């Protein structure tokens, strides 16, 4: 079938059988020991979640259903409109891979793309009105969380659940519909938020039903050459590159296994049978923290400010001094470090490679030069500083500054694009959570007295 829901329908019975067998026959098998250090240390090293789409290895980085970014770039279908076939895969192909575990055919990927475009034509009018009336100056991530939460008014799952006419076995079908509708709405919602911050809410571009999801994000930001608005006067090549950057970015930020704050929050809230809009809105609120997705905006601010203070983005000595001053003020170097990874993030490398493949575009960009130079200097400084377990660049180190290059210069907006992409992994898991009948999440907590008793 070319329909994602039909393919899932066929897959679910076997998986459900497998998980029940696992529970029945191996439910008592131990995975690890939980230490007091983990309980008071952000649950680090505590393997305790089931997550289907992706898995993170500390040294190899993220794998999407067992596939590296390189594998995905080779295997996942691209847009047929890609003029030279060198572009990035469609995030729609990634969504299919996450949901089913299989690489989609080009027909399957394009069918999903068309379905998202058909469902995403316009925002529900109540969300549109609400978004138009948000106070100016509200952070774009707050706008995104509000917009998503408001769409719970149209949740199929919430409506059916309230009516009481669905059985547990059917939950996933309505969660699936909500998840696809939510993902489909993100280009319009993102465009609306961007127009709120740069154009007093006036539309910046057009939604095109014959185009893919990432293209529509770019178009609604007013960044494609076909649109009259083409805000930055990008030429044909630049605007094609910008769409490709968007496909790359939104294709690889989809998921980072289950334990990161945005994914875990979505899963946790969804386990109470809150619908996908409420669940992902909560995930977005977590993504809006500076130690998580908001680092995307912090990195750009940091690079721009540093470039004002140093004589050249190539000056290793001045960069080093700048970093030491920051660390002496007890601030973190944004875009560096990771809770689980222990090497440079392959997603950072993919973004850096995007810039390196276009020397004529980026060779003169002081911020991009500094971003690359920093990735040599910061790890040395952080190692000498001696606290950070992973001194290497993470996913947020390169992304915002590439968008900035093409003219999306509103720093607070970058994490919204992260939020578009991140919808795909956690919502895939939510569908599977309901398909497999997983229960409400409720770990046990301990107070000081109980922890003390364990130490005696
Ligand atoms: N700059 C300075 N100090 C750091 C950094 C950094 N980039 N990263 C970690 N440290 C410090 C950390 O604050 C902690 O100090 P203290 O003992 O005084 O509390 C110490 O090193 C040990 O921390 P780790 O165990 O290495 O890191 P942890 O797992 O606690 O946190 C991050 C992981 C990602 C929150 C942390 O590395 C960080 O704050 N990085 C900067 C912010 C950032 O780039 N976040 C984006 C992460 C990716 N994403 O999108 O989510
Ligand atoms: C992510 O993509 O979610 C970040 O790298 C943070 C994490 O994995 O904890």
Automatic annotation (TrEMBL):
One Pfam family per UniProt: Citrate_synt
Residues spanning the membrane: none
Single annotated GO MF: 2-methylcitrate synthase activity
GO BP annotation list: carbohydrate metabolic process; tricarboxylic acid cycle
Assigned GO CC terms: mitochondrial matrix
InterPro entries per record: Citrate_synth-like_lrg_a-sub (IPR016142), Citrate_synth-like_sm_a-sub (IPR016143), Citrate_synthase (IPR002020), Citrate_synthase_AS (IPR019810), Citrate_synthase_sf (IPR036969)
Principal cellular location given in the protein's record: mitochondrion
Annotated keywords: Mitochondrion, Transferase, Transit peptide
Keyword Transit peptide part of the UniProt annotation: yes
Compartments where located: Mitochondrion
Record keyword Transferase present: yes
NCBIfam families referenced in this protein's UniProt entry, alphabetically: PRK09569.1
Family: Belongs to the citrate synthase family.
Name of the protein described by the UniProt record: Citrate synthase
Organism annotation: Zygosaccharomyces bailii (strain CLIB 213 / ATCC 58445 / CBS 680 / BCRC 21525 / NBRC 1098 / NCYC 1416 / NRRL Y-2227)
Organism lineage: Eukaryota, Fungi, Dikarya, Ascomycota, Saccharomycotina
């Amino acid at each position: 079938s070319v329909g994602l829901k039909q393919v899932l329908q066929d897959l679910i019975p076997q998986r459900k059988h497998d998980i029940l067998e696992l529970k029945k026959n191996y439910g008592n098998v131990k995975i690890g020991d939980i230490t007091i250090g983990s309980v008071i240390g952000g649950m680090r090293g505590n393997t305790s979640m089931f997550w289907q789409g992706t898995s993170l290895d500390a040294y190899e980085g993220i794998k999407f259903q067992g596939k590296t970014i390189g594998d995905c770039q080779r295997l996942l279908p691209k847009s047929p409109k890609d003029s030279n076939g060198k572009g990035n895969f469609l995030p729609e192909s990634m969504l299919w891979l996450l949901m089913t575990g299989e690489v989609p055919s080009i027909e399957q990927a394009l069918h999903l793309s068309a379905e998202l475009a058909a469902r995403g034509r316009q925002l529900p009018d109540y969300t549109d009105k609400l978004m138009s009336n948000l106070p100016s100056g509200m952070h774009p991530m707050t706008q995104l969380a509000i917009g998503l939460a408001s769409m719970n008014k149209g949740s199929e799952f919430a409506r059916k659940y309230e009516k009481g006419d669905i059985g547990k076995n059917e939950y996933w079908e309505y969660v699936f519909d909500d998840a696809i509708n939510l993902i489909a709405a993100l280009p319009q919602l993102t465009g609306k938020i961007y127009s709120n911050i740069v154009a007093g809410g006036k539309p910046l571009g057009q939604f095109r039903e014959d185009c893919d999801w990432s293209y529509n994000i770019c178009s609604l930001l007013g960044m494609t050459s076909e649109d009259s608005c083409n805000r930055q006067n990008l030429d044909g090549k630049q605007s094609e590159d910008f769409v490709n950057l968007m496909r790359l970015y939104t294709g690889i930020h989809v998921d980072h296994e289950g334990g990161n704050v945005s994914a875990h929050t979505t899963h946790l809230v969804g386990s109470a049978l809150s619908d996908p809009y409420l669940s992902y809105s909560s995930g977005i609120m977590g993504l809006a923290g500076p130690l998580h997705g908001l680092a995307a905006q912090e990195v750009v601010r940091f690079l721009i400010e540093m470039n004002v203070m140093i004589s050249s983005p190539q000056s290793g000595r001045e960069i080093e001094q700048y970093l030491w001053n920051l660390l002496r003020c007890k601030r973190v170097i944004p875009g560096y470090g990771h809770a689980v990874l222990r090497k440079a993030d392959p997603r950072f490398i993919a973004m850096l490679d995007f810039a390196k493949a276009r020397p004529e575009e980026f060779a003169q960009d002081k911020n991009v030069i500094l971003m690359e130079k920093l990735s040599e200097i910061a790890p040395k400084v952080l190692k000498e500083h001696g606290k950070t377990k992973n001194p290497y660049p993470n996913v947020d180190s390169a992304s915002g500054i590439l968008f900035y290059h093409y003219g999306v210069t509103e720093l607070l907006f970058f994490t919204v694009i992260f939020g578009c992409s991140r919808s795909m992994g956690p919502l895939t898991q939510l569908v599977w959570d309901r398909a497999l009948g997983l229960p409400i999440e409720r770990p046990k907590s301990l107070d000081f007295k109980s922890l003390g008793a364990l130490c005696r």
